[in-house]
C-alpha cells in the first residue's frame, strides 16, 4: 500500500505528515518498532515506530531508518532538527498525536496494510454505486462518511421516510435521529466489524425498516451504507449484497481522501466545532495558540437549482478558493465542508481583528469566479479557541436568517441582530401552526398585504395607502373587513401577533 493510502486509511488525525522527501506514493510493506536500546531492525518499505525516544534522542533512529530505505518514521514529538534529518535521509516523517497509544497505532496500521484495494473493483462514482446497491437490495440507499455526512444516494420513486428526507436535504443526518441511533447502539455495531445491522420500523418516529453495514479499511471505519425499505420488501439477497457493497465502496472512500493532510485538517475542524476534540489538541496539530482569540466564518453557495453535479462542482471550487484566502490570512486556518456549507476557523487573531474585509473579498472573488451568489456570516471573535463553537453557532444563526429573508452577501450578528431575531421567530411560527392565530391565517392575500402595510406604518393610513398605491378610503375599507373577522386592532398584543404572522406569510 502506498504511504498516501495508509495515511488516508488511518482516518481521523492519529498522525500528521511533517515531511515526505520521496513523495506519498512510496510503498509501505510492514510496521516495525524502533527502540533506542535495541539495534535497528528496519527493512526497505517499513513504517518504523520510534518508541522511547523524543526530540534529539530520535535523530540516530531517523537516520538509521533512512539508511535502511524505510518508507516512513513515526515519532511522538517532531522538531525542525528531526524534519531536516528525515529530509536528508530521504524518509517520510510522521508526528503521532500525544494521546495516541503506540500499541493502538501499530495494530491499526498493520490491519490496514493487510487490506488490499483492487482498482478493478471500482464501479464508477459513488452515486452510480448507490444506484447499483439499490437495484441489488430493492431498497433506497444512502452512503455516509464517519461524521454521518451524506456522500451519495440512490434515486427512488418510492416513499422515503423522515430520516432519509432530512438526511438528504441537510446532507447530514438530523441530530435528534443520530442521537437515537447512538442510544440504540447502532453505531457501535457498525464500527465494530462486518455485520449487517437491522433497524426495525418505528412508525411513531417516522422511521421505516432499514438495514446498514459499516465500510472499513482493515479495522478502521470509513463510513456506512444505509438501505431503507421502500414500498416493497427488501430482496432475499439484500444482506449478502450489502456486505459485498461495503467492500466495493471502501476503495471509493479511500480515493475520495486523495489529499490526506487536507482531510486530516478538515476532520480537526469538524471535531473542534462539534466538541469531539479539545482546543489544546487541535491547536497543537495546526501550530496555533489556544489562548488567543479566534473566529468562525461560514459560507454558503446560493442558487442550487438545476444540475446537481454542477452545483457540487461549484461548491468544491468555492471551498478551494476559500482555503487559499484563509491560508494567506492565517497559516493555521482550518477549512471544512458540512451540510452544504463551508466553515473557516481563523485562530491567532488580534483582539480587535476585522474580518469583514477578508470575508467580502472572498465573496466577491467567488461570485466573479463561479458566476453565482455566495453568502457569508462572520461569527464574533471569541477570546480563546475553546469558545470557537460559540462563534460558529452565531455565524450559523446569521446565515440561516440570510437564507430565509435577508438580502445581504456578508453580515455579522451585530449588523443584523434585529433581523436575525425576527427571522428566528418567524421560523418558529412557520414550524408551529398551534402558536398562530387562525383568523390571521384565514385572511385573503390582498387583505393580509394591506393589514401588514398598515401595521408597518404604525397605523398611518395615508403612508400605508401610498405604499400600496391605493386610496386611503380603500385601505380603511379593507381594515374594516379585517376587524369584522374578529381582529381587535386597537389591542397592541393583537397588532404584534398580526404583524409577525403576516410578515411570515
Automatic annotation (TrEMBL):
Pfam families: GGDEF_2 (PF17853), HTH_30 (PF13556)
Residue ranges annotated for the CdaR GGDEF-like domain, each copy included: 278-401
Recorded superkingdom: Bacteria
Annotated PucR C-terminal helix-turn-helix domain residues: 447-503
PANTHER family assigned: CARBOHYDRATE DIACID REGULATOR, CONSERVED PROTEIN
UniProt family annotation: Belongs to the CdaR family.
Protein name per its UniProtKB record: Sugar diacid utilization regulator
Organism this protein belongs to: Lentzea jiangxiensis
Upper classification of the organism: Bacteria, Bacillati, Actinomycetota, Actinomycetes, Pseudonocardiales
